[in-house]
Design brief:
The structure holds 2 protein chains of 2 kinds. In chain A, about 0% of the residues lie in helices and about 45% in strands. In chain A, strands 1, 3, 4, 7, 8 and 9 form a 6-stranded mixed β-sheet that branches. In chain A, strands 2-6-5 form a 3-stranded antiparallel β-sheet, with no helix packed on it. Classes of the chains: A mainly beta, B mainly beta. At the A-B interface, strand 3, strand 7 and strand 8 of A face strand 5 and strand 10 of B.
Chain lengths: ~110, ~120
């Protein structure tokens, strides 16, 4: 079955750029979506269909997907970006989430 | 504005049953697939099930297949999850989410905690 692999944790200095990856076999052939989950809150969608941003999500958030890796990039990281981030795909009528990455803003 | 409000959670003994509800508002409920997604304490997100707007198409994760039933009442803008034969590893926060046709989840409820414990 298809699997998504994310690093457990990523750290970024305040104001710098954070990169969170999501790996999967030929992932570039699928649409990847990203969610942010702050502690104690429900997830929110931050990127859909690889690189599109829902209304209300800052332009600092961007996404890409090619080959075996999708990437969520957050420029000018802020304290409020500290959260868990999950990638997600649809495969064979099932929904798959990556294991999640904890982003720490130093 | 879109609102999803879950209810029906609580503590249940292993082997017991529970029925979760999700009240939807702010959008044309019948136009959307709806889904349940859960998160065990300290763990990641796990998709449970989704159902089409008409209720005709239903899919379940292997981990719950045969033990849970998703349904909806379009007249009442409500989504349900009937959970039977509950196990300790079903303990989780259960989220109701609206599924976009391109299979991502654009709106989520606040979640409801289900605890399976003796």
């Amino acid at each position: 079955s298809f699997e998504l692999t994310q690093p457990l944790s990523v750290s970024v200095a305040l104001g710098q750029t954070a990169t969170i990856t999501c790996g999967g076999n030929n992932l570039g052939n699928k649409h990847v979506h990203w969610y942010q989950q702050r502690p104690g809150q429900a997830p929110i969608l931050v990127i859909y269909r690889d690189y599109s941003r829902p209304s209300g999500i800052p332009e600092r958030f961007s996404g890409s997907n090619s080959g075996n890796t999708a990437t969520l990039t957050i420029i000018q990281a802020q304290a409020g970006d500290e959260a868990d981030y999950y990638c997600q795909v649809w495969d064979n009528y099932s929904v798959l989430f990556g294991g999640g990455t904890k982003l720490t803003v130093l | 504005q879109v609102q999803l409000v879950e209810s029906g959670g609580g503590v249940v003994k292993p082997g017991g049953s529970l029925r979760l509800s999700c009240a939807a508002s702010g959008f044309a409920f019948t136009d959307y697939y709806m889904s349940w997604i859960r998160q065990a304490p300290g763990k990641g997100l796990e998709w449970v099930s989704y159902i089409s707007g008409s209720g005709d198409n239903i899919y379940y994760a292997d981990s719950v297949k045969g033990r849970v039933t998703i349904s909806r009442d379009n007249a009442k803008n409500s989504l349900f999850l009937q959970m039977n034969s509950l196990r300790a590893d079903d303990t989780a926060v259960y989220y109701c989410a609206r599924r976009h046709w391109n299979v991502y989840f654009d709106y989520w409820g606040q979640g409801i905690l289900v605890t399976v414990s003796s």
